[in-house]
Structures are given as C-alpha cells and as structure tokens.
Structures
1.
Amino acid sequence: MTAEPSENSSGSAGTSGTRFDLEKETELRFELLSGLAEVFGSELNRNKKYTFGPGSKIAVFTWQGCSVSLSGKTEVAYISKDTPMLLYLNTHAALEQMRRQAEKENERGPR
C-alpha cells in the first residue's frame, strides 16, 4: 500500500501497533494529535512533529488508542492488533514480582 504525500489522519483504538516502511527517497512527518503512543518504547509528545528519514521502518504502539497526523509517502503501512507488547508487559511484571519476593526474603532476585 502506498500513501500519497498529503496530510492524513489516522485513528487507532485499543492495544494496537501501526507500522510504516518508508521509501528510500522519502521522509515521513508524524504527529500525535491525541491519546498516548510510543515508538520502539519511547513515549511520543502530543502535538510535536517527528520526522523519520528515508528507508526507516517505524513501529508506533498505543495501549488505549490515539489519533495521529501523517505527511509523506510510505512503501508499506498497516495497523496490527497482534503485537508482542502484552507479552513484554507480562514478562516485566513477573520479573518484578520475583525481585520483590527476593528483596523481602533478603535474597538475590532475577537479573
């Protein structure tokens, strides 16, 4: 799928990830209009324009939905409900629980 270079708005509800693969000679401008989202674990600021260079592969994730504005041409763009983020969260929670238990028992926790 190729998006024409223009202002596009996109919405995403619930836990989902949006992926963009940029063409080799094009950059993409991305702005978070509402909600919360992150790119590879770094939280995005609302109403700040982010520019991604030619050939970039970007994954934007939201837990609760968001609205974004895009400007540029993508080689591939799609929204996926099937992301590993819930698995990462559960793994983090399990490790944290093990660390707290080890601290409580004055032992070494997982590293």
2.
Amino acid sequence: MLTAGNFKVNEALIKDADLLATRKKVYSTESGGPYSDGLNEGVSKDDIVSDIIDLKTNKNRMEFRGCASDQYLVCVLSDVALNTNRANNFTNNYQYLQNSIQNQRLSVFGVDNDEEAVNLTKYQQQYNMASKMIQTLTEIYDRLILQTGV
C-alpha cells in the first residue's frame, strides 16, 4: 500500500531525469520508426506535461460527471454527503414507522398500564362498598333477630 511514509522516487530517475517521459516521440507510419518534426525537439519540449495540466482544467478532454478533474473530488464528496443524509433520513423514518406500528399493536393487543391501574382502583372501591353493604346487612339481621327475641 502506497503511503506518504513509504513513497520514494525510483533511483534510476534520480540518476537520470531524462528517463521521466515529458515529451512524445512521433512515429512515422511508413518507416515504423521515430522521426523529427523539427519543431521544439529539445529538452524544453514538454507536451506530455502540458497534456496532464490540460486534463486538470479542460472539461472537453476529460469529464467526470459534469465536472473537470479538479472538481471531481468535490462532486464525489457532495454525493457522499447527500447519500449519508438520505440514509440517516431513511433510518429515522424507519424507526418512526416501527414505533408507530408497535404503538398500534399495543393499543389493539396490549395492556395500557395506566388504564389497568384505574380499573384496579375502581374494582377495589366496588369491593370495599360491597363488603360494607354485607357488613351492614349482617348487623341489621343480628339486631333484628337478637333484639326482637324471635
């Protein structure tokens, strides 16, 4: 894996910079060998470097999703940010939907703790009233039987 820590220039290029291709050799179709056009043939010829620089800014030569190559990374990062936002929205929507379905299930099949507590209190009060009624009737019958002497 190439990193900034293990990157190094080839020893042959350090010894002889002419090995770095900065100019094109033009080949003749008739002879099959290189020929000279006579123009700008020296060390200063840098047509490959010019082509690389042109790739950076010329949208017509190389297009990356509607952007020149120097803007390609910006386009990719924008897409990643948008896709991340969409994924987060989808996750949140899915979570809300899941919670809504769970609440609907509980309302149909489940037991609401507050409602059960209210019902429990209501039934306890009814039980207490019924037991007081029985106690009162028992006292009435005891007095009726014991005090009348029947």
